[in-house]
Amino acid sequence: MNALIGRTWQNFDRLPSGGFILCPNHLTEIDPLVVGHAIYSSGRLPRWLTKDSLFKVPVLGAALRATGQIPVSRKSMSAADSLDAAKKVLEAGGVIVIYPEGTLTRDPDLWPMIGRTGAARLALQTGAPVVPMAHWGDQKLFPRYAKKMYLFPRKHVTVTVGEQVQLDDLRTGPRTRTVLQEATSRIMASITELQAELRDETPPENLWNPSEHGQTTTGRDFDVPKPPND
Fold this sequence. Notes:
- The protein is an alpha/beta fold.
- It is built from six helices and seven strands; from the N terminus they run ββαβαβαβαβαβα.
- The chain has a seven-stranded mixed beta sheet with strand order 1-7-6-2-5-3-4, sandwiched between helices.
- The radius of gyration is 17 Å and the shape is globular.
């Protein structure tokens, strides 16, 4: 990564010393390398909640297992097992990285889109702090769903860490859908604010919602309209 990109890391003194949940934006498929590089170089070992299909890829799957990454099935009850595994990492003072968007942003201008509730659910279950992160620049090295890297000229990536997302008022009482959505909205708002600072631009008033634009929420061909309900 040092050979591929120049880098600027901002506000890493905001990272807690104990276990925490890190929530970055998601621009391109090499984001985990950028985030992992930054966190590891700051003296911590990051672990991701990672879609289980990646564990079946030769070489990559072995690397994921060897580094203690946590598989997540999007379509089965085993997702609960993934949260249990994540809790153990947090209790041991580890770092869990969750992309709250669940996949690469579908926003045409690469702003964060609406989030899923997994990060919020884990945070409210464990009491672990949630730290937002934003990065910008790696999409120039490897654009979203590209087939090759653009190595020249050498790209520069900036990664910044935000203040912990305030969730204390949501930690007591039942974890209803409304509570989880409110926590998720706060997380996404913090990430969007950080990215706006990096880009020196004004973000959209409302986060991109793929379902409102006929987009699929998984897969590379996300501009293909979803099939109608039977």
